[in-house]
Amino acid sequence: MNKTPRSPRQQRGLSRRMWLSGASATIALPWLPSALSREARAAASAAPKRVLYWFVPNGILAAEATPRTTGADYELTPTLEGLAPIKHRVAPLTGLTNGTSGYTHEDGMVSLLGDAPSGNLTVAEGNTTIDQVIAGEVGSATPFPSLQLSAEANSNFGGVIGTYYNTLSWASPQTPLSNVTSESVMFDRMFAGYDENLTEEQRVVRRELRTSVLDTALERINKLNGALSTEDRSRLDQYATGVRELEQRILKLEEAECTPSERPRDAAEFPGQVDAMADIMTLALQCDMTRVISFMLGVSVSERVYSHLDIATTHHTLSHNQASSDTAKAELIAIQNWQVAQFAALAQKLEAVDSGDGTDLLSNTLMMLCTEFAESNGHDTEPRLFVLAGGEAGGVAQGQHYSFRTTPHANLLLATAAFAGVDATSWANNATATLDLTTFAGG
Amino acid sequence: MRTVAFVPLLALVPTGCGSEDERPSPAQETEVSDARSTSGAHRLNRAQWGNSLHELLGTDPSVVSVLPVDLGTYGYDTVASGLATSPVHVELLESIVISALDDFFGRHPESTSVFSYQAEDSPALSYDGGVATEDAYVLRADEDTITATTSLQFGGEYLVSIQAMSPGTGDDTPLLSIAWNGGDLLSAQRLSDDLPPNPAPFTWTVHLEEGLNAMSVHVISDGIYDDQQAAIDWIRIEGPLDPVIGRAETYARVFTCNPDFDDPDLCAEEVLSGFAFRAWRSPVSAEDVQPYVGLYTTALDAGLAWDEAVQLGMQGILMAPDFSYRMAKGRVDSPGHMTDYEIASQLSYFLWSSPPDDSLMLAADAGELSDPALLDAHITRMLEDPKATALVDEFAAQWLGIRELTSIQPDALLYANWSEDLRGSMAAEMSALAHRFILEEKLDLREIVSYGEAWIDDRLAAHYQLPSPGPQGAWVMLDNTPRAGILGTAGWLTSQSHPEQPSAVLRGKWILDNLLCDPVEPPPPEVAAMTPPDPTEGSVREQEEALRSDPFCQQCHQLMDPLGFALNGFDVIGGIRGLDELGYPIDSTSQLVSGDELRSIVELGPMIAHDPRFTRCLVEQVYTYGLGRAPTATDAYILDGIVEEFQANGHTFDALVRAIAHSPALLERPIAVEE
């Protein structure tokens, strides 16, 4: 169902090597349309569809964020002000509710993309998240089935609870996916190890040897499995999955067409890091390294101090104190305003990338801003704010505020899967239908 | 677990104060959890991965820092059930392994650096006197020097070349010499008046450490003429010359044969078998090694050199799950018992966070580790080894909150004394205390909560208002101070504070969780927002107590709060305070559930030290960390035995380790419970 057609450029066989040898090429020339034939350009409307989940920790105050009116002429609230430059390409979605009332950060986390009711505090156990359902279907087309990134390394919490706080994506109920928190590490995952001095023949030899090594790892796992308990087998299965994905990556990276920009240095300051992460995500999407990304602006219960906004109290503390202090609330909304603006900034980066067929990368990417709470002091998980951006090439009707009353947010999750060409209806717990993103009808 | 600054109050729902925290206590754990059935495939954590590569290949253990942090579970990042493997782990592991092997084989071209200095390009070279002309540095003998400072990424042998000349004839020329980092002049060499390239550059080979190194160039007068001088054309520093240097030992352990003299294929097989044995910490059969010999053969067929082909086989061995997972299969004749090799691994990752060394592997091979006396001898040796500091850096850092301290952010506006340096001093004090109790001296572990000495540096002395211990830091007596033991360290107090205000709840809860292993439940769902304290409504403590006066709240808070109130005299960064945030006098007294009065930290420490829960909790903590699994209800009898041994032998860490090592918990293999 999800056999996304190979992009025209792949059919032409433009290799990564050719791109790398074009030394002057930069991130600004992603698809290099001039390299495409006219026919290829015409066919490029089948540009692959991507989904990107963009998480804000500690909730966004839904009551304050919700615009007063719906439709296209809605007025942006202070929380959403940052969307102004691309207001016609975004859609705030308010009032979505699964009808499950979580009341902790972990509940907010597992219900968000996992559509699971609540977190088990004895053993870390989520539900497979929608991004991973999608990656399971479309992931084989790209070097990375999916990417998990975070702009915050770790919460102060360890253990089971820390696992919930630090995890947006779960590959299975027992497999929380770790985030990469360094721009340079992520860059190296995509581009390192490529030696342009090698001949094509040497390159093939090298690749085959590397994959032979991984084959021995899989053989070894098979051999060991017979003697292991179910539980141990599932551990080694996680390892085997990693090995298989890596093999896929080694093969796909050779075909990938892309122009790496300068290797980023890890930014020292938070705003710089968020910006660099946005660059890396843009690069990953435009190079078709992956079609599924989940990104955490911070981890749940983030105690980050937003000093660049001249705010001295930690984010998490403000998320509680806002209930009883106007000053705290104003500061929290200032933070949320900045966070939303970063979402818009990434959308604008995608907007600036030409897909080669007259559409931009944003119109082929469905971005979804999401968070774990609607009201953070009471830890109310619903009804949460969602903001969609982009995806117009897949029919998403942007530019309006859509308000819902009884629609589960699981319907939206199914809609993001449908955008990527994946039918996930059998996965959802709480969905009643797939939200139609061309009309947003539901109510 | 840290919660919010103004903690949402629990209300409404009676919950009781059971123990369903994320770290269940064995007594209350009813189901047979995953804990005992999971040691068959126990992934190495980050630190263990790094140390394992270090032991095998001499790799810098910090290469693993690119891997995602292991969050751990049951309080420790060694616990198997918390060590899930994401694809990103495997992917990054592969790049780490390839890079470590390239390093080991000296294949990193970028590891050799060249630093060049020429007068025309580097006039800014630190130049003391003399003249930098367009094409040379001109130095007067015995008068002028130039200094080149370079930042080296690697230590090792470096080649220094200097192209220079001096007017004069025969022996009537000055000498040229260099000195590193203010040290002695190296062997001087006579300059000549020939023009390059006739005199080859003057060269020296020096051993340098990584980091900043300053080289000064000197001209020394020699001969009958005054006013000698020299012109330096260029300076070049190149190295490290042999990246394998410093790894000679690891190298020799891998290459036990020589393909130039021995049969290359047999030698490859020997090397790979030996390497697999050490990398997998277990005997390997010819059949086990065959796939890696196969990689070697494939690589040779593809045209690679012998050492490159062997390297590929080694890559295969390191990418096998046997390297990244500890596999406990049990004895062939008795699957319920660990093999000697499994005991060796268990013990070495417990005490060293590192793989077994040769001595342990030999002992395993000889079947000695099943002998209690010989096992004891190894424990003695291992606890004396420098690698045992892992017990401080890994175990104590997690148990006592030293790691938590690294990410805590006190409100810098309210606490102007706070600095990253102070954080470092705090961590050093906590580590020193742990080090003394765990490794240096065989002290009664229970006294870690009441210990009357602290290791402090000048910064902490100022923070504690104590006399300077001297620039290097020192142990000082804490008599007549309100501090004692771990709970009196600024670091611990900071780690259990909110950014803006200290918290009796956090501190009390931590004591219940980590010292008494008697946790209370997290706050129930329906929580009322708590308003920040009102300055007109009495002290912070009074306002908090009023809010928690509800009997439901009291079920848990009466257990936590009194312990924390005893520490109320310490602010967010562990400084002493007489007034709370609202300006009310501090009240550090409270009444325990037992009815006993608790007046301050001076009484709190001894009270905890004598609590039988503390003794058992110490056992549980070390057990969980060391074995990588939390004890379950079915382990209760094993724990009882360990507690007994621990008590009978002075409550020392040493005794505790031995009690665990001789117990079925380490020697027997949990039989997996199949569903």
Could you please describe the fold and organization of this structure?
The complex is a heterodimer of chains A (443) and B (675). Chain A is α/β, with parallel strands linked by helices. Helix content of chain A is 38%, strand content 10%. Chain A contains 14 helices and nine strands. In chain A, a hairpin with a 2-residue loop joins strand 4 and strand 5 (175-176). Chain A is globular, with a radius of gyration of 22 Å. With 675 residues, chain B is of the alpha+beta class. Chain B is built from 23 helices and 19 strands. In chain B, the strands form six sheets. In chain B, strands 3, 5, 6, 8, 11 and 13 form a six-stranded antiparallel β-sheet that branches. A five-stranded antiparallel β-sheet of chain B has the order 4-7-12-9-10, with no helix packed on it. A two-stranded antiparallel ribbon of chain B has the order 1-17. The longest helix of chain B is centred in the middle third of the chain and has 21 residues, at 420-440. Classes of the chains: A alpha/beta (443), B alpha+beta (675). Chains A and B meet through helix 7, strand 5, helix 8, helix 9 and helix 10 of A and helix 2, helix 5, helix 6 and helix 7 of B.
Ranges of chain A where pLDDT stays below 50 over 5 or more residues in a row are 1-45
Biggest sheet architecture of chain A: 7 strands, mixed
Distance between the termini of chain A: 29 Å
Approximate strand percentage of chain B:
5-15%
Shape of chain B: flat
Oligomer: heterodimer
Tell me the number of helical segments of chain A per DSSP (H or I, 4 or more residues long): 14
**Biggest interface, and residues per chain?**
A-B, 79 and 85 residues
Cα-atom radius of gyration of chain B: 31 Å
Structural class of chain B: alpha+beta
Shape of chain A: globular
Amount of helix of chain A: 25-40%
Contiguous uncertain segments of 5+ residues of chain B = 1-38
The total of helices of chain B stands at: 23
What is the beta-strand fraction of chain A? 5-15%
Count of DSSP E strands of chain A? 9
pLDDT averaged over residues of chain A = 84
Structure class of chain A = alpha/beta
End-to-end gap of chain B: 32 Å
